[in-house]
Amino acid sequence: MAAFTIIDAHTVFGFWPFRRADLSLETLVNVLRQHQVTRALTISTTGIFNDYQRGNEETVAVCQQTPELFPTATIDPRRYLGCREEIDRRIGQGLKLFRVFPEYQDWPLEYAPFLRLLQHLAERGAVLMISAAERGVATCLARLTEGLPLKVILTAVRADNLGELLVVLEERPHWCVETRWLNSPGALTTLAAAVGAERLIFGSATPLYYFSSAYLPVLAADLTEEQKALILGENLRRLLS
Q1: E-assigned strands of the chain?
Q2: pLDDT tens-digit map of 142-173
Q3: Which of 105, 168, 170, 191 is the one with CA 20 to 30 A from 66?
Q4: Other CB atoms within 10 A of residue 224 CB
Q5: What CATH number is associated with residue 53?
Q6: Given this model, what pLDDT does residue 2 score?
């Protein structure tokens, strides 16, 4: 088996209020080194559950001291004032991936501040990462971004919702999907055949979830070594280059 260059699109550190888990920076780095992950995008949970600007500061500071980590930024549309300036500030620092968390912050996709921020992210050439765990979320987001050249990574999509995912990806050729929960037999093979392995992005959500539960299904999938290499690192590198 080939030795793959692994770039993880989805890691976190901090405190998680909904479950007991060791999300310390030390644990995260140890997991990445154990699995020989070359680079990982990460985000402080402070930005999810408390203050997005302070969380971004924590993320950037940690990544400056940890060579394996690269910062992901977040914004919170509930605190719309200052969000566009925060986007510009982080892009100026070299960040390109922005995450939003309506599932934890309790705001709807059809929310005027969010719609305005989607437009700003698209204008600045940013990439948006958002959970599409619930049926209909990807469909709604596709409708709300009609006409916007916004690149999107859908995360937390389950294999039992392949139908919606396939339709949305066919209609949005600049969108990708994280592979973490697409771990049912044949799911990755089906997606690669339908829309191309170039649209699949590896993310583990470690250390909130076990790294191997996301990694091993990619290795076991009925894909070529070249396709696995794309999924495990090359696609994300190109997207954020």
Answers
A1: 6-13, 37-44, 69-71, 73-74, 97-99, 127-131, 151-155, 175-178, 200-201
A2: 999 999 999 999 999 999 999 999 999 999 99
A3: 105
A4: 11
A5: 3.20.20.140
A6: 55
Residue 1 has pLDDT above 80, yes or no: no
Helix segments in 23-94, DSSP class H: 25-34, 46-49, 52-65, 83-92
Residue 1 lies in a domain: no
Residue 93 maps to a domain: yes
Residue-by-residue DSSP string for 1-16: ---PPEEEEEEEES--
Give, in degrees to the nearest 5, the angle at Cα 220 between 127 and 161. Answer: 50
Q: How many independent structural domains does the chain possess?
A: 1
Full residue range of the structural domain in which residue 164 is found: 6-240
| pLDDT digit string, tens, across residues 69-107 | 999 999 999 999 999 999 999 999 999 999 999 999 999
193 within some domain: yes
The residues, ordered by sequence, that sit 6+ positions from 126 with a Cβ below 8 Å of its Cβ are: 87, 91, 96, 97, 98, 150, 151
Average pLDDT, the chain: 96
Q: How far apart are CA 105 and CA 83, in angstroms?
A: 15
Query: What pLDDT score was predicted for residue 241?
Result: 85
